[in-house]
Amino acid sequence: MTQKTFTITVWSLFVVSAGLGIIAWGQTVNWQLGSLTPYQWFPLFGIVAWLIMWTHYATGFLRLTNPGLKSIKYYSKVTGWIVLASLLLHPGILAFSQYRNDQGLPPDSYINYVGESLALAVMLGVIGVTIFLSFEVFNRLKHNKTIKKYWTAVSISQSLAMTIIFVHGLRLGTSLGDGWFRIIWIIFGIALIPCFYVIHRADFTRKD
After folding, report:
1. 3-state class of 142 per DSSP?
2. C-alpha separations of 130 from 11, 157, 177, 205 in Å
3. Which pLDDT band holds residue 138 (cuts at 50, 70, 90)?
4. Arithmetic mean of pLDDT, 11-16
5. Whole-angstrom Cα distance, residue 53 to residue 176?
6. What residue ranges do the domains of the chain occupy?
7. What are the two backbone dihedrals, phi and then psi, of residue 94, each rounded to the nearest 5 degrees?
8. How many CA within 13 A on the CB side of residue 145?
């Protein structure tokens, strides 16, 4: 794979992945964007965050299986900021809306929203987002000797979060019913398996 092909592939994955998520969410709300409530907006950001993170894993897989490819200028930074914003907006909008409606604070307000029967799925989401956000801290300290020593554990924790959010989405996602997007979500989830293998094999074999 050439560098140009790699660049086109990665940006295409970003557009297609995020686009599929937006289309699935838009169909759920019948594209009535002008009359949506915060409760209808917040799922969009969870979908977008996970799908863009998926492209990061796909990018890592392609780079590790095609030695010589360079990182794409601005891709990680631009998409990283989108992911971070989405990770904050997804639970944040719901928490704020529930608080305004006298439903208390998280995680109780989240459980009040979905019901006790789905409490475990809610807690998985909280754990997953917390792990994702921890990466923002570790990434800024990655040159610290201690963090560098345990970077493999940090990397594995992010894959764990991807898996947790995958399950969280299947259980709670309003756009992940029995339609086409549920199939897409499952395909994307399965596609993570070889990505995990290649990336973490590199983690364990990397000398530095």
Report:
1. coil
2. 27, 11, 26, 28
3. confident
4. 96
5. 18
6. 3-205
7. -65, -45
8. 0
Residues in the chain: 208
Look up the pTM and report it.
Answer: 0.91
Query: 200, 157 in Cβ contact below 8 A?
Result: no
Full DSSP string of 29-59: TTT-GGG--HHHHHHHHHHHHHHHHHHHHHH
| Token pair in block for residue 197 | 């293998």
From residue 59, give the alpha-carbon distance in Å to each of 15, 39, 46. Answer: 14, 32, 20
Q: Which two tokens stand for residue 120?
A: 């475990």
Of the CA atoms within 13 Å of residue 95, those in its CB half-sphere come to 12
Residue 55 makes CB contacts below 8 A (sequence gap 6+) with 10, 13, 14, 17, 79
Q: What's the rounded Cα separation, in Å, for the pair 12 and 92?
A: 29
pLDDT tens sequence across 154-176: 899 999 999 999 999 999 987 88
